[in-house]
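Hi, here's the filled form for the chain we discussed.

Project: internal
Contact: R.S.
Residues: 490
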Amino acid sequence: MRTTSARTYGHWISGHWQEPAAGHYAITDPATEETVGHAPQADRADVDAAVRAARAAYDSWSRTAPVERAAVLDRIADAITDRAAELVPLLQAETGATIRVTKAMQVPPAADRFRRYARGAVEPGTVPLAPQPMRSTPLAPGGLIGAASVRRPVGVVGCITSYNFPLANLAGKVAPALAMGNTVVAKPAPQDPLTCLLLGGIMREAGLPDGVFNVVTGTGVVAGEALVAHPGVDMISFTGSTAVGKAIAASAGATMKRTLMELGGKGAAVVLPDADASVLRCAVSAVGSTWAFHSGQICTAPTRVLVHRDQYEHVITALESYARSLKIGSPVDNSTVVGPLISSAQRDRVEAYIAGAREQGARVVTGGDRPDLKLGFYAAPTLIGDVTPDMTVAQEEIFGPVVVAIPYRTEDEAVEIANGTPYGLYDYVFAADTGRAWHLAARLRSGNVGINTVQRHSEAPFGGFKDSGVGRDGGSFGLQAYSELQAVVW
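And the returned structure, exactly as it came back:
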């Protein structure tokens, strides 16, 4: 049980806490259902104040020398690391992530991203272009004309983030944006914004000027809609559902805002017939990460496993054994692998998908029932077999610990199934012949393809095809995402 009183937070605007006019709302621990803290409820005036603060800070920050911006980002990384003992328990409580995931994948990546973009701030942003001899025209005299392409900040960036990795996801947006000289208004997911609010004070202590980074929070659509529609915002960077992403794109288009969208996924793990015992073990472990890593609340998860009919039952049996071996329980217990979902609403949504699969004739191989725990929003690791590509569970993102298994007969059929959803974020190929897997990757309409691994490469471009998003971030691609190109001609 929680022994300390839940803290009440304000918005972080222009380097200070600001009381919300619309009051506060409770943040709930998904495992204990206790109140973790109270977050501020933003109205349009709060968002306007945050945007005005960011706009006022833009001129000075954008003209700050890159080496000075780099030093600030490095200090932010150090401060996050130094305060990990404070941040980890709060982040774990508000997200429901297991303590192992929180310690390894929530806080350290946030520090790493600020440190990476401290280096990014001083990456060359000017590309000289070869001089061209130009004839005289009615427009201008001729001569030898030089030019350069120069990367410039976009302006004020609105960062709207998802609930699964709130701090790391926000850092992945804010760090490259600040490195390029932009200022930021952040709007974290309503379910777990508290650690993101604390980031404001951490950044101020590290020397970030007031107004360069601001945070507003709230439930409902008011804050997000106000941020997207605000004429003082030049870019929206969003991570979340495809439905919300489409609404943001439509609104942002009215003021011609730049958008960067990382949206939903329905990852396919294609197991090729040449997979030997070693590759099959790798595939089972990779697909099992859907259950074992943050209870499947990750858009890159391999939630569809496509297996040749000759190996289908073997893989089903191996996955069933894997799922049954995973301990479900309190996320603060180091032995727990599967923690709760973020909310009762998300748990109900996952259960509705499983019920729908049964109604459509699929077979629930394991899981499917609510774990016998008195408190918390838990869903058991669930494997659904005998799935056809047209079933709802094979088409829509569930965002929970659910894997669907689909058999195929030919490689062409496997590609057709893998590409047969509106999504295209992250697919996987498992094969003994990695050359064959490489060629198959070219046929997958997916922004990312993993070959015999679910590991990420931090410098690789990240983003999706189709309904999975627009644009790319990651590594130096993130600097490009948060900048505009200006041609200078002389």
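Let me know if anything looks off before we file it.
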